Amino acid sequence: MAAQPTHVIAIDQGTTSTRAIVFDHTGALVGTGQLEHRQHFPEAGWVEHDADEILRNARSVLGQALGDAHLSARAIAAIGITNQRETTIVWDRQTGRPIHPAIVWQDTRTQELIDRVADGDTDRFRATTGLPLATYFSASKIAWILDAVDGARARAAAGDLLFGTPDTWLLWHLTGGPDGGVHATDVTNASRTLLMDLTTLDWSPELLSAWDIPRAMLPEIRSSAEVYGEVVGGPLAGVPIAGILGDQQAATFGQSAFSPGESKQTYGTGAFLIVNTGTEPVQSTSGLVTTVAYRLGDRPANYALEGSVAVAGSLVQWLRDSLGIIRSSGEVEALATSVKDSGDVYFVPAFSGLFAPYWRPDARGTIVGLTRFSTKAHIARAALEATAFQTWDVIEAVSRDIATPLAELRVDGGMSVNDRLMQFQSDILGIPVVRPAVIETTAFGAASAAGLAVGVWSGLDELRSLWREDARWTPTIDDAERKHRLARWHRAIQRSLDWLD
Prior knowledge:
Blueprint: E1 7-13, E2 17-23, E3 29-36, E4 48-49, H1 51-69, E5 76-83, E6 89-92, E7 102-103, H2 111-118, H3 126-129, H4 139-148, H5 152-157, E8 161-164, H6 166-174, E9 184-186, H7 187-190, E10 196-197, E11 202-203, H8 205-211, E12 220-222, E13 225-230, E14 240-246, H9 247-254, E15 263-267, E16 271-278, E17 289-294, E18 302-309, H10 313-323, H11 332-337, E19 346-348, E20 366-368, H12 376-401, E21 409-412, H13 419-429, E22 433-436, H14 441-454, H15 460-465, E23 469-473, H16 479-496
Parallel strand pairs: 1-5, 5-14, 9-12, 15-21, 21-22
Antiparallel strand pairs: 1-2, 2-3, 4-7, 6-8, 10-11, 13-14, 15-16, 16-18, 17-18, 19-20, 22-23
Helix pairs in contact: 1-6, 9-14, 10-12, 12-13
């Protein structure tokens, strides 16, 4: 009898690229593939992706990762999908083609729709969804597309159009597309749409009515770990897709934050703190959002509080692409370290307004404290420090919402390899910062969910045993210096507000 396959492959569909990563039974990374996709900015505040390009890239990187691992499909037990959340794709059920470019989570074009539905109360549906009314989430993006594309509303009501975040888009196409593709999402992604009831874990009739979105176009909501369907065609034909988690929830799962009070911070395009709150949703009174952390099969869902920061790694890209003060993202650490501090320069990167805990769409990016002494190195350092300050803001909000303070912060994502930033993060938080040996926690989280569903791993205890610490930073500044720096940061925040009428 042939041995059972023990490798799992994750598709990590992110804001700037799509990757496939193969993990073995020990959690070790054994093969990768990656392709970037283009970012489109047709107007100020608009951010779009080509969903067809993302699909092509996903198919390509699956083959790349298999080749890099020197494996065939027979070695793969399952596929997990993790994805940029909230990004909205609407497509034709018969052709499989998008009717409009994907509207990315960072996009702010729908503010007028938000204002109209909110009617002066951005917390109007928070008790149901755990979310404020904001352009960040999917509902207003769906409504905008249905309004903007001729005939789209009638086609959606007739069941001719489908909606999905990138996980649903990839799942539907990989399992057959127009010829029987599975139209589903998991609870973590559904909880980011502003359309799901956190208690019932189903689409809310009240919210669908508020946005005038036909239920016929929405995917089925399923758990984060189950067999959704099998791949049709290509080198992975017949392999089950068995795990789906939104990227931040996947990173939390990959960090083994399975229990109440456990947390992680991911530094990617944005920065995202998630704190597990157990099997009951906790409503924030401090500007955080309530979301689903994960659900395994038919077990109860686990919930979380999340602090979402819009701009983190994308600020480094902005220094590179728009200002030209670095030639590659990797240069920012050396430039920032070339000066002893930021020279009293503070950078509030509110390019799309401020997300948690402020939720101020009127804010815009601000650099304050500039003098003739200031150099590009001070600006680079202030840019890195902005991520740490924003992280302090969301962790402080967590401390107001839950009784148990965070004892340490587990970190992952691209910016977590920046030792200077991690040290400053520990300094400004006043707690240890811990980086795991495998920082591809987002992909591993999706692989873990898929592996659990098909028996590669026996349960959460076995997954927890795979986590290993790589590096730890502890605070090196005193309380007085910490308070001074935070006070200056919050003065800078105030200067970023009320820019838009």
